User: Fold DUF805 domain-containing protein from Streptococcus oralis.
Amino acid sequence: MFNAYKNFWKGYVNFTGRSTRSEYWWIYFTNLLICLPAYMKYHDAVSTRPYNLEALRSLQAMSGFYFFLAAILMLPSIAVTVRRLRDAGFHWAFIFIALVPIVGPIALIVMLAWPSKKDEDADTEEQDQITA
Assistant:
């Protein structure tokens, strides 16, 4: 898990390598654990106490933090998704299928869960790029 997350940050602009299925999902799970407290605080301030001034001040601070966190994680998350699609044998442009309402995100999740497609020529060279 820690090696996968370390590789996530080392290859944050690497769109040419490959990411295994387990590596992708460990990264996704770790990012979820990092973002979940901020999201829960945001949801609490919006839904349960919308007229509470203290909650609105908290909401302002959490919104800034959540935006900052999302901005930091955006590029590496796109890069690891492109690498995962490539590892599963799909073209990188399939990342845009997530923009199709309702079925798009489901289709992308299915593609990301697809088993790795073995490519003997590029496999060793691209894995060396990620770990270097």
Remarks:
- The chain has one domain: 2-6+13-131.
- DSSP finds five helices and no strands in the chain.
